[in-house]
Write a structure and sequence with these properties.
- This protein is mostly beta strands.
- The protein contains one helix and 21 strands.
- The chain has an 18-stranded antiparallel barrel. It has a two-stranded antiparallel ribbon with strand order 16-17.
- The longest helix is centred in the first third of the chain and has 18 residues.
- It is globular, with a radius of gyration of 23 Å.
- It starts with a helix and ends with a strand.
Length: 434
Amino acid sequence: MTRFLSHAVLGCFSLALLCVPAHGQDIPAVTSTPPFQGFQLPTELGTLHYALNFGERVRSGYYGTGSNIWTTDFSGDLGYLSGNETRPLSIVYSGGYLHNSGGVQSSIFQNLSISQTFNTRLWTTNISDTLNYLPEAPSSGLSGIPGIGDVGVNPPPTGGDGGQDILSNTGQRISNNANASVARHLTGSTTLRVGGGYLIQRFLTGGTSSLDGDSIDGQVDVEHRIDALNKAEGNYSFNRFTYQNEDFSITTHKIAVGYTRQVNRMLTLHALIGPQFVSSAGSPLASSSINFSVDAGMMYTGEQYDYSVNYTRGVRNGSGIVQGTFADSVYGSAGRKIGEYMHLSATGSFTHNSSIGNLTNGIPNAQQADFRTLIANVQFSRVLSRNFNAFLNFSVQNQESPSAVSSTNAFTGTSQTYGFGITYSPRLLHLGHQ
């Protein structure tokens, strides 16, 4: 208890010192709601937004020490969107340093996404690359690290079937996801898109039980805008997963049809459903099956609150734990303004991963590895001035694996993280000619 109080006093004292430069812009002098509640990704051409974060967090149940681990974190976020309408460039960065107590090794985390688009009257070409260097499976916000203070800021999409990664024991890992696509506007309402990409994932300190993996994918998509509120699409995609020093591989072919409905100015519904043909090779457990893939959800954006819910079903690479999984995942997020100066954000997910190698015609056998992962993140933020805001958050991770092989590097049990800190986040910077 004494240790907790000493850390809390030290953290509050540090926050007070950081707030001194903003004393001339205290709350009573503000006549309107400040434009930002912490860091936000820019959506306006020719703008840049950045944030600097300082925080303290305490975590239990994760590092295997049997005690609470305190962490002091220093991090930064940056988002840039160029002002060129025909060749927009997007850059998103999140990174920082985590100083851990209790003999747990300190670490850094780095996330960088770059996307370049080229637009002409009939063609749209996009090239993107995402690089992540993390001490654990991403589970919260832009950084992927629980307790950092970025709950509600989602990373740019990287393609593939959605779903939370299987949580693994602490260990630095690196991944790189590159994608390219070309779209041809056949008519004013119909677009043909062809794309492909690759993913590499390497575990640097996860032990010999971690599986380094690679995957390649390709897809063809046709979209047709029925009217201003309705859109239909058809999709074919191919994916192949391979693993370092392993003969085992998984190949999938998916055919899907989809529909998107703009119900009103605030509510959007979408669904993409179809069969997925799965085959594996290089193992006595190799098999083939036909399953349904799903990507469906809804999004609501209002003046005071917003929320989204999404369900995905499909094949994933196994997160370095097993040789491929079939994943069912539900993900939700919500945000709510509270008065003029406060904001509440929450995200949550539940994912069921079943090992692909042990599926026979879609039915698991008795040896199947099975993972059920539940994650929830809640954050309360309070504006201190135009450029500063304080945050308080809570995260919980629970993963059960009743049939997992003991030699895997999977995390099992429950971990809780409490974090608080301060963010310096000035208003958007407008760059170039306006």
